[in-house]
Design brief:
This protein is an alpha+beta fold. It has one domain. Helices cover 20% and strands 27% of the residues. The chain has ten helices and 18 strands. Strands 17-5-6-7-8-9-18 form a seven-stranded mixed β-sheet. Strands 1, 10, 11 and 12 form a four-stranded mixed β-sheet that branches. Strands 3-2-4 form a three-stranded antiparallel β-sheet, with no helix packed on it.
Length: 364
Amino acid sequence: MTALLWPDRVELAHRFAPRLVLLPERQELGRPTVEGTAGDYWPRSVELLIDHGHLYPGTIRLLARLDFQKMFDYSKRQPASLEALGASQRASWDQLRLIGPPVPRPKAAWQRYFEILAAAAPDQYPLTAYARVLTRAEAVDGARRARVRDEGKVGQPFYRPDALRDDDVVIQYWFCYYFDEWYNVHEGDWEGVSVFLRREDGSYHALGATYYGHENGVRRHWEDVHTQGGEHPLVFPASGSHAAYFQYLKGGHQTSIAGAFLPGLKLKLRISVASDRYDFVADDQIHPAQTPRVEVLPDPVGPADLNDPAWRHALWLNFPGSWGVRELGKLVAGGPTGPKHKGLKWHNPFAWSEIETWPDYLIY
């Protein structure tokens, strides 16, 4: 098997980079609405959050230390930086707080977001997609090393169990948002999509894609994915929630509760139950698709030159805390963890796609 070198990964990441169909990023339109009738946040570079956030070690830890100053005096909190995030690799209670108080404030977040953009230099916080290029062999090995169970899943229906190749490739594109305002509300938001590839006659071609919607997602075969130029998938982020969808739907996309968990039996049901909530996305006939800047993540392979700027991404990738305020652990909605701390979704996207995504009900 020929190793997939860094330049090859960069080329693939740009070749299949998504195009984003976004609701207007305009303050005067008002905060995101569930119905998609106002403005919305765009996925921008992580520096927008890092440059204007503070690291907070968590209320429980501060109470244990009797450190009340940092709880109530925001000026005592450590300003966030790439180096600070990289140094907190073992502190999962750390929070990258954006506004300050323990309860998310949608109105303040919307105002602060546009203050940041107005004061920023041109292209300081560009529309950005963070790409990670991973082979099947690397995914299987990564899941094993992380002790994450993949249940022997291989990425069906895009791949057949009897015809797997170590050089099958998945490209994950991650999008970082400043704020999530839907039925749940929280600072920070990470969503994304995956494109699955196979090498034939010396070149890679796409087999299918999965689009993330928080902990689950939907999938389509490549021939059913709307693209630009046959290789750039169109992605439709939902108003407020930023869950990714394959196309515009006037009446909105019905959301579902996927994989119900029965704690008493420690079972997760492989079913998807329709809910009464809808996600609304932009109409690509009105809002032209946008081209994000592609930043390739140095994981599992990075550039040979250790001074390459791509290695800077490893600092924020390793941050185990939450991107946004989070209290009471996972009992209530809060800022999400970063991409590298998403368990199976990160370590083996092939298996995650088969386990946690469902065929898009619009066409299958």
